[in-house]
Design a protein that fits this description.
Pfam families: LysM, SLT. The chain is mainly α. Helices cover 37% and strands 9% of the residues. The protein contains 21 helices and 8 strands. The longest helix has 19 residues, at 173-191.
């Protein structure tokens, strides 16, 4: 395919925002290619592709991104194959799913579609995150794939996506989109087919090449539909084609898609230092949750001190954010705790206490090693607000997952990883599946375990994990609430925790017990009184 680099034209002339970056797309003049670290000056603009290089008349700008997508589709969406038809029928029968995904995509679609069109790629590529992650930047698969484009660690590293305690580039909307589109372009150059490039994105270029060689030896066709590919890949490409076809023919299939305005949702704002994300949200007059949704690459309460030094800020408040940020000294952008070193403390134990890393403490205090002395002081960057304020940080997502599990009929057991442990061994010893164990801990089965690491295991019932003799002492009893009873008095009487009573009976913390209300308790008969 001939790659034609084009720019977007500006519909409101002269409105240039210095220092902001949205995405530039297509214009009559070819544009120089920016390297991964080069950020072109941006403009507040709409996506306005031209008809062709030899056409003098500019087309009318589409005000709806779905319509713009339809105008730039390039793939064969009407191929006669049962796999495509089966996938199309599934999406056709689940319009609510498509509407939910479209709503989730609304934050990111203007940027991603613009990047796709800027590279003269089929508009269908902008719909690929629907298949990969349902446009959820926090999606994490059992195969260790993360982010809207579902990069696995090895591929992410190959394409320069940074990963640290603070930050995961696989979830960064800007960085992961650049990497994914670059990868797809390389695969297209290799196979000269978008269908084969998409297949290779899913199962790897080596598998596609092997399938092509097998068919050539047999004298068979080597297009996607003719190849013997892995089962998942054989339906992966049809899924994207089916989604694209349904969006193309939405009206004919009674699918109502909320219009997506053809205007920037966010702007990229450059930073010169680390900043607390709750403070950044306040400067831009949005919630911390909204800031995380625009910047899902950040794992913790602040940006990575080693970069990337940028934030995506809503377009409507970006200028306000820049103004207020410029007035805030760098040393006030994160909190600093003054910690007096106690006897026996190490940098690692202090780091765990403050929810940070040893490297951050060493860097902040200009320490070359790990030797510290009792009685001395350390300066430690810390969050400005309660942990609950950072609602989509990695730790809070984990806590929310645990709280959801606590509402089920399972019981939580904490396990400390020992030398020689593996997911398979721990799962087998606790009678749970490897995939469940990994999911409970926001990990994948292939992720490495560290000695001393704590895992949450959710048992199916209160009897699991006890010895046979101990199981004989546990009784499931029914209890009728009496006048004057409270969760505290009942928990104290049967020597169980209030949290356990709430979990076993799915009680809301704000609700009072009523006389005659029936409760289920799991009681150790040697402890109850």
């Amino acid at each position: 395919m001939q790659l034609v680099r084009k720019f977007v034209v500006l519909t409101a002339a002269g409105l240039i925002l210095a220092g902001c970056q949205t995405n530039q797309v297509i214009s009559q003049q070819p544009a120089p290619v920016s390297g991964p670290d080069e950020q072109p000056q941006a403009q507040r603009q709409v996506l306005n592709p031209t008809l062709s290089s030899d056409t003098q008349q500019q087309p009318q700008t589409s005000t709806d991104l779905w319509q713009l997508t339809r105008q730039h589709m390039q793939l064969d969406l009407d191929h006669d194959d049962p796999r495509l038809q089966a996938q199309f029928e599934w999406y056709q029968k689940h319009p609510q799913y498509m509407q939910r995904v479209a709503t989730r995509a609304s934050r990111y679609y203007y940027y991603i579609l613009g990047e796709v069109l800027k590279r003269d790629m089929p508009a269908e590529v902008a719909l690929l995150p629907i298949v990969e992650s349902a446009y959820d930047p926090f999606a994490y698969s059992h195969g260790r794939a993360a982010g809207p484009w579902q990069f696995i660690p090895g591929t992410a590293k190959h394409f320069g996506l940074k990963s640290s305690w603070w930050y995961d580039g696989r979830r960064d909307i800007v960085a992961s989109t650049d990497a994914a589109l670059t990868y797809l372009q390389q695969l297209h150059d290799r196979f000269d087919s978008w269908e084969l490039a998409l297949a290779a994105y899913n199962c790897g270029g080596g598998n596609v090449s092997k399938a092509i060689r097998r068919n050539k030896k047999k004298g068979l066709a080597t297009d996607f539909w003719s190849l013997d590919l892995p089962k998942e890949t054989r339906v992966y490409v049809p899924k994207l084609l089916a989604v694209s076809k349904l969006i193309r023919d939405a009206e004919d299939n009674n699918l109502t898609l909320q219009p997506l305005p053809n205007k920037p949702v966010f702007e990229q704002v450059e930073l010169d230092s680390q900043i607390d994300l709750a403070q950044a949200a306040k400067l831009s007059s949005i919630s911390t949750q909204e800031l995380y949704q625009l910047n899902p690459g950040f794992n913790r309460w602040a940006t990575d001190p080693d970069g990337p030094h940028r934030l995506l800020i809503p377009a409507d408040t970006a200028e306000q954010f820049r103004t207020q940020l410029a007035q805030l000294p760098a040393e006030q952008r994160v909190n600093w705790a003054r910690h007096k070193i106690s006897k026996g403390e190490t940098i690692s134990t202090i780091a765990r206490h403050y929810n940070t890393t040893s490297a951050v403490i060493r860097e902040a205090n200009k320490l070359s090693g790990s030797n510290i002395r009792a009685g001395k002081y350390l300066l430690i960057p810390s969050a400005k607000h309660e942990s609950s304020e950072y609602s989509l940080s990695q730790s809070q997502r984990f806590s929310r997952k645990q709280n959801q599990l606590a509402q089920s009929d399972r019981n939580r057991v904490t396990y400390e990883v020992k030398q020689g442990d593996s997911f398979w061994k721990i799962a087998k010893n606790n009678n749970v599946s490897v995939r469940e164990l990994a999911s409970w801990n926001q990990m994948a089965p292939g992720d490495p375990l560290r000695v001393g690491q704590t895992l949450a295991i959710w048992k199916a019932d209160a009897h699991q994990g006890l010895s046979r003799s101990d199981q004989q002492l546990i009784r499931r009893i029914g209890y009728s609430v009496r006048s004057g009873d409270s969760l505290y008095t009942i928990a104290d009487r049967f020597r169980v925790s209030i949290n356990d009573i709430q979990r076993w009976n799915k009680l809301e913390k704000s609700k009072y017990l009523q006389p005659g209300q029936h409760l289920t308790l799991y009681v150790d008969i040697t402890e109850a009184r």
